[in-house]
């Protein structure tokens, strides 16, 4: 198959390529759904992983981004991003087949200590492919439709994730309940299917056209230093690093908390995840349109506060003795997190693409990924260590009313190993948002203006005025108190 780039792409070539990129996205989403999220954590817990190992598994996908230097060297050496992406994607997906075959062919050999190094190679190859892919997409996708296109692609991927995750969760819970001895085999088959579908997805990439782009032949470290000398891009790095650290010190342990502390099955966990995904699916196109119209920075400034409020709300999960109030609170949290994450993740990707000069796109984006990878990888490791430290420690706050005839105690909040992480994440997120104010983006509009327009849009389309209005106003008051206290 011819993987050489083309000097000129016609409008028809671009349209065909954009459809193929969506096809690859669906294949990749199938692969990551089967081998990531709650499922990889559940498998790790089944293998006896401790908190530090769980944190390491959560850190691996971002930790390996530090090796995107390899992608820069390869692109500069061969000037063929499509070939690099396809080859590295194949190398990334083969280890999944190996993990899948282990419990079927050598069940006694499979340990968490063996799985982690294999996962490292899987994520490493994927990171190299991803860096090359980002630069490729920078040149392929028209900038004026960048937000709308990736919002559409993400909505398809999230819809697939929701349906597939629910089917898998119900199946795994059934196997765990009736055939517990076969649970590890089920994970093995999931990894095999993931590897096969992932390899199939590389054929879409191989058929996607690539516009020719030549990188200058200069010292690679001088190239990496160039984005760091760009004041505005450096400010973006500061914010992005602080934000991913705040998020990843808490988010990887949501599933662990629900499984180990609350005793919820995968069906409940995936059901809640689907609530988050559905809210994301219904709002991501709106976020994409608003990002293109007003700016990515403004969308982040709206979504980040909402996510922080969700982290605070996690501290109140589990304080009720009955299951249904906890599930109700978890459902609300996941609903709001889906809305917030849709805008934040889309805009973080797009603002990096937008601020990166076309000629140095891979250098800027790889530098961004490498820098943020350090903080994104350290966060879950720190979270695992902190969770171990807070094991056996807790902070309990009650309110008591006493009268001559009766006494009533209201259980307000109780923090323990996981809840402490959620609170730390919220506080660090407040610091990160202060750094966002210093980033400049062409065409940015004041947040309050966009909130007012977005509120009207959501009222007409989703009937969710409360979500984007009252909660954001509450955050504004919280932020003003935080600024007076610490800044």
From TrEMBL:
Keyword Membrane applies: yes
Keyword Iron carried by entry: no
Keyword annotations: Membrane, Transmembrane, Transmembrane helix
A GO molecular-function descriptor: transmembrane transporter activity
Transmembrane segments: 21-46, 52-75, 82-102, 114-136, 156-175, 187-206, 236-259, 265-287, 299-321, 327-348, 369-387, 418-436
CDD domains linked to this entry: MFS (cd06174)
Protein's name according to its UniProt entry: MFS transporter
Species this protein is from: Chitinophaga lutea
């Amino acid at each position: 198959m011819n993987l050489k780039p083309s000097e000129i792409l016609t409008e028809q070539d671009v349209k065909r390529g954009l459809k193929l990129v969506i096809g690859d996205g669906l294949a990749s989403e199938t692969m990551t759904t089967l081998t990531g999220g709650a499922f990889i954590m559940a498998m790790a817990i089944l293998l006896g992983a401790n908190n530090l190992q769980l944190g390491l598994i959560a850190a691996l996908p971002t930790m390996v981004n530090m090796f995107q230097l390899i992608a820069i060297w390869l692109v500069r050496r061969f000037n063929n991003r499509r070939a690099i992406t396809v080859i590295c994607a194949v190398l990334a997906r083969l280890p999944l087949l190996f993990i899948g075959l282990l419990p079927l062919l050598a069940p006694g050999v499979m340990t968490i200590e063996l799985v982690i190094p294999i996962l490292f190679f899987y994520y490493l190859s994927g990171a190299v492919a991803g860096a090359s892919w980002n630069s490729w997409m920078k040149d392929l996708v028209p900038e004026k439709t960048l937000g709308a296109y990736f919002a559409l692609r993400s909505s398809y991927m999230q819809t697939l994730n929701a349906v597939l995750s629910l089917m898998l969760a119900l199946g795994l819970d059934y196997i765990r309940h009736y055939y517990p001895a076969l649970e590890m085999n089920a994970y093995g088959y999931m990894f095999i299917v993931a590897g096969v579908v992932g390899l199939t997805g590389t054929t879409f990439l191989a058929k996607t056209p690539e516009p020719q782009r030549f990188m200058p032949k200069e010292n690679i470290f001088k190239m990496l230093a160039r984005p760091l000398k760009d004041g505005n891009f450096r400010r973006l790095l500061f914010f992005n690093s602080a934000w991913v650290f705040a998020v990843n010190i808490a988010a990887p342990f949501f599933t662990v908390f629900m499984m180990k502390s609350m005793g919820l099955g995968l069906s409940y966990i995936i059901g809640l995840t689907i609530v988050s995904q559905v809210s994301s699916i219904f709002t991501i196109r709106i976020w994409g349109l608003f990002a293109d119209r007003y700016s990515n920075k403004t969308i982040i400034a709206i979504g980040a506060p909402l996510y922080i409020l969700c982290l605070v709300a996690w501290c109140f999960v589990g304080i009720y003795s009955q299951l249904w109030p906890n599930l109700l609170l978890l459902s609300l949290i996941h609903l709001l997190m889906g809305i917030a994450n849709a805008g934040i993740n889309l805009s973080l990707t797009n603002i990096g693409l937008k601020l990166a000069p076309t000629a140095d796109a891979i250098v800027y984006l790889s530098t961004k990924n490498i820098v943020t990878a350090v903080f994104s990888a350290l966060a879950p490791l720190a979270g695992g260590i902190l969770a171990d430290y807070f094991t056996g420690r807790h902070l309990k706050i009650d309110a008591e009313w006493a009268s001559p005839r009766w006494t009533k105690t209201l259980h307000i909040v109780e923090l323990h190993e996981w809840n402490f992480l959620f609170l730390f994440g919220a506080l660090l997120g407040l610091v990160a948002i202060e750094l966002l104010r210093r980033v400049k983006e062409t065409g940015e509009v004041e947040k309050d203006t966009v909130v007012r327009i977005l509120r009207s849009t959501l009222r007409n389309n989703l009937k969710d005025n409360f979500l984007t209005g009252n909660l954001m106003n509450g955050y504004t008051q919280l932020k003003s108190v935080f600024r007076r206290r610490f800044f």
